[in-house]
C-alpha cells in the first residue's frame, strides 16, 4: 500500500513538474502566500500575476531565441568553422535532468538542505524557485553517471545547493540595491555562477586605473548618444548589426533589428508585472519571519528572470552575444557551437552588471570571460552530457557525430568545479573543495559579516 501511495505521490509530483514553470510558479507562490498569512484571494492573485509576468518574460525570451539563434548560427557558418558540440539550450538539459532515475532523491535533498539551513540560521534564503532545482540536480546526475556512485551524486548536488544558497545570501544586498527588490534573493545558478568569476575579476580590474576610474554606464551611453542611446534604438542597432554579420538580406536584417528593439521594450514591462505580484508576498514573508523566526528576516529566493529585463543587463547581453559567437570560432579548446542558449546570456551577465554597479566596460570584459568559461566547460563535459541524454531516451536532433552542450548544466563554472571535484580523484579534490567553500563562508559571514548582522541587530 505504501509503495502505491509513494508512486501516486511521485506521479502527481511529476505531473506538476511537467506543467512547467508558468504553472508551477503561480501554485508555489499561492501556497507560499498562504503560509505567510495572506488571504486565499490575495495569495492566488499574487501567484497568478507572477505567473503571467513569467509567461510574458518567457514569450519574449523565446521570441529572442527564435530571432537571434538562426542569425547567430548563420554568423558561425559564414566562417566555415566546424564545431561539433551543438548548444541545444537549457530546456533540453532540463528534460535530461527530470528524466534521470535519481531525480526524486536529489529534489528531496535540495529541499531538505534549504529547510535545515534555515532552521540552523545558516541561510536567509527561502528558495521557492523549485523549477530551477534542475541546475543543482544535473551536477549530481552527471557525477552519478560517471562514477556509478549514488552517494557521490547526492553529495555533489548537496554541495552545489549549500553553496548556491550562501551565494544568494551574500549577493542579496547588491541585488536589492541595484534592482530595488527588497527581501528578494536569486538562488538561480544560471545567474549566480558568474560571481565565481566576476568577484575576483572585478577586484583585479579595480587595480587598473583605466577600469577603476571608469564610470561609464548604459545611462551615460544614452546621455552621450542622445537619440541613439534610447533602449529601443540601441536594440534596433544591435539587431541590424547581428543581421548584417549573419549575411541576411535587407528584409531579414530589418526584421531582426525591429525584433531586438521589441525585446528591449517588452521585457521591462513583463518584469514590472512580475514585481507587482511579488511585493505582497515579500511584505507578508517579512512579517511572518518576524513572528515565526524571532525577528529573523527571510529572503524569498526567486528565478533570476525577475531581473533580466533591466536595460543594463539586456544591453550588456546584446553586446556580449555577437562577441561570444566570434570568440567561439577562435577560442582554443572550444568545441561548442553557440545557438539555443544565446538568448539566456542576460541571465549569465545579470549579476556581473550588479557587481560592477553598471560599469559598462567592466561588464563587457567580465562578461566575455564568463562566456569563455561556458564554452570551455561546455566543451569538456559535452561527451558526458550527450551520453546521459541518450541513456534516458531523450531524442536530440543533433544528427551524425554531433555532441550536445548548453550554457547551462556543468558548463557553468560553479557547477563545473563541483562536478570536477567529485569525478576526478574525489578523495583528494572533494576535501579541498570543501575547505575552499568553508574559507569563503568564513570570510563573508565572519569578516565581512554580510547578512549576519540582520539577525544580530534584531535580537
Short account of what is shown:
This protein is mainly alpha-helical and 459 residues long.
Q: Would you mind describing this structure in some detail?
A:
The chain is mostly helical. The chain is built from 19 helices and six strands. α14 crosses α16 (360-391). The longest helix has 43 residues, at 250-292.
Characteristics:
single chain, 459 residues, 3% strand, mainly alpha, 3-stranded parallel β-sheet
Structural class: mainly alpha
Number of distinct helices: 19
Gyration radius, to the nearest Å? Answer: 22 Å
Percentage of residues assigned to helices? over 70%
- Residue fraction in strands: under 5%
Low-confidence stretches: none
The total of beta strands comes to 6
Name the average pLDDT. Answer: 82
The major beta sheet can be summarized as: 3 strands, parallel
Biggest sheet strand line-up: 5-1-6
**Shape summary:** globular
The SSE order reads HHHEHHEHHEHHHHHHEHEHHEHHH
* Beginning-to-end CA distance, first to last residue: 48 Å
Provide the fold topology:
Blueprint: H1 2-18, H2 21-35, H3 40-77, E1 85-87, H4 90-98, H5 103-119, E2 125-127, H6 134-147, H7 150-179, E3 184-185, H8 189-192, H9 195-205, H10 209-212, H11 218-225, H12 231-245, H13 250-292, E4 299-301, H14 311-330, E5 336-337, H15 345-355, H16 360-391, E6 403-405, H17 413-423, H18 426-447, H19 452-458
Parallel strand pairs: 1-5, 1-6, 2-4, 3-4
Helix pairs in contact: 2-3, 3-12, 3-13, 4-6, 5-6, 5-7, 6-7, 6-17, 7-17, 7-18, 9-16, 12-13, 12-14, 14-15, 14-16, 15-16, 17-18
Amino acid at each position: 500500500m505504501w509503495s502505491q501511495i509513494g508512486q501516486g505521490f511521485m506521479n502527481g509530483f511529476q505531473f506538476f513538474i511537467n506543467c512547467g514553470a508558468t504553472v508551477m510558479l503561480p501554485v508555489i507562490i499561492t501556497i507560499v502566500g498562504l503560509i505567510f498569512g495572506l488571504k486565499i484571494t490575495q495569495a492566488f492573485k499574487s501567484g497568478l500575476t507572477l505567473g503571467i509576468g513569467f509567461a510574458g518574460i518567457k514569450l519574449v525570451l523565446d521570441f529572442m531565441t527564435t530571432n537571434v539563434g538562426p542569425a547567430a548560427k548563420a554568423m558561425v557558418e559564414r566562417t566555415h568553422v566546424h564545431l561539433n558540440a551543438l548548444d541545444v539550450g537549457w530546456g533540453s538539459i532540463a528534460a535530461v535532468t527530470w528524466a534521470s532515475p535519481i531525480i526524486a532523491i536529489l529534489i528531496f535533498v535540495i529541499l531538505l538542505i534549504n529547510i535545515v539551513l534555515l532552521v540552523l540560521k545558516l541561510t536567509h534564503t527561502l528558495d521557492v524557485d523549485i523549477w530551477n532545482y534542475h541546475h543543482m540536480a544535473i551536477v549530481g546526475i552527471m557525477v552519478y553517471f560517471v562514477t556509478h556512485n549514488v552517494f557521490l551524486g547526492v553529495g555533489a548536488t548537496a554541495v552545489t545547493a549549500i553553496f548556491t544558497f550562501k551565494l544568494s545570501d551574500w549577493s542579496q544586498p547588491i541585488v536589492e540595491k541595484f534592482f530595488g527588490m527588497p527581501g528578494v534573493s536569486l538562488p538561480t545558478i544560471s545567474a549566480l555562477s558568474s560571481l565565481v568569476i566576476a568577484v575576483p575579476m572585478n577586484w583585479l580590474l579595480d587595480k587598473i586605473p583605466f577600469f577603476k576610474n571608469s564610470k561609464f554606464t548604459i545611462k551615460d551611453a544614452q546621455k552621450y548618444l542622445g537619440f541613439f542611446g534610447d533602449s529601443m534604438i540601441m536594440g534596433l542597432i544591435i539587431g541590424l548589426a547581428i543581421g548584417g554579420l549573419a549575411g541576411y538580406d535587407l528584409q531579414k536584417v530589418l526584421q531582426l533589428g525591429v525584433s531586438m528593439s521589441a525585446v528591449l521594450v517588452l521585457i521591462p514591462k513583463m518584469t514590472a508585472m512580475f514585481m507587482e505580484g511579488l511585493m505582497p508576498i515579500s511584505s507578508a514573508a517579512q512579517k511572518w519571519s518576524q513572528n515565526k523566526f524571532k525577528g529573523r528576516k527571510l529572503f524569498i529566493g526567486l528565478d533570476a528572470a525577475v531581473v533580466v529585463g533591466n536595460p543594463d543587463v539586456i544591453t550588456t547581453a546584446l553586446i556580449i552575444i555577437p562577441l561570444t559567437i566570434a570568440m567561439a570560432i577562435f577560442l582554443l579548446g572550444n568545441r561548442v557551437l553557440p545557438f539555443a542558449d544565446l538568448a539566456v546570456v542576460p541571465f549569465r551577465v545579470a549579476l556581473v552588471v550588479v557587481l560592477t554597479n553598471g560599469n559598462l566596460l567592466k561588464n563587457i570584459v567580465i562578461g566575455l570571460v564568463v562566456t569563455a568559461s561556458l564554452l570551455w566547460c561546455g566543451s569538456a563535459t559535452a561527451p558526458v552530457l550527450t551520453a546521459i541524454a541518450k541513456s534516458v531516451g531523450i531524442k536530440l536532433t543533433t544528427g551524425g557525430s554531433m555532441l550536445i552542450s548548453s550554457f547551462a548544466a556543468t558548463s557553468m563554472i560553479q557547477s563545473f568545479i563541483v562536478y570536477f571535484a567529485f569525478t576526478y580523484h574525489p578523495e583528494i579534490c572533494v576535501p579541498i573543495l570543501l575547505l575552499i567553500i568553508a574559507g569563503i563562508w568564513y570570510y563573508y559571514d565572519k569578516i565581512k559579516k554580510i547578512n549576519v548582522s540582520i539577525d544580530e541587530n534584531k535580537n
